[in-house]
Design brief:
The chain starts with 18 loop residues before the first helix and ends with a helix. It is elongated. The protein has one domain. α2 runs antiparallel to α3. It is mainly α and about 90 residues long.
């Protein structure tokens, strides 16, 4: 019998377009390696498929690379904002 996968979208799937919801998806993954956990349904699906014998290592690696890029970018933005606020405050003086 063919294995079926069930990952329905949550009722508030439109909410994923804001930074806080994206952070929830990335929670626990902080620049993760393949062994760390993630709240991502796509990662869970790919890992389940891999465990079921499907060769999905390429999309899994691509997903992890994209997630790591997003996490690094978001962290960079969080570090830049206080610096910009400081520069603006100095310029207003």
């Amino acid at each position: 019998m063919e294995k079926k996968y069930n990952y329905p979208a949550p009722n508030n799937s439109d909410a994923i377009h804001c930074n806080n919801e994206i952070k929830k998806l990335l929670a626990g993954s902080g620049l993760s390696t393949q062994s760390e956990c993630s709240n991502s349904s796509i990662e869970k699906l790919l890992r389940q498929m891999m465990n079921d014998g499907h060769e999905v290592s390429a999309p899994l690696i691509e997903f992890i690379a994209m997630r790591n890029y997003i996490v690094k970018t978001m962290r960079g933005n969080e570090n830049i904002i206080p610096l910009i606020e400081c520069v603006l405050a100095e310029l207003k003086k």
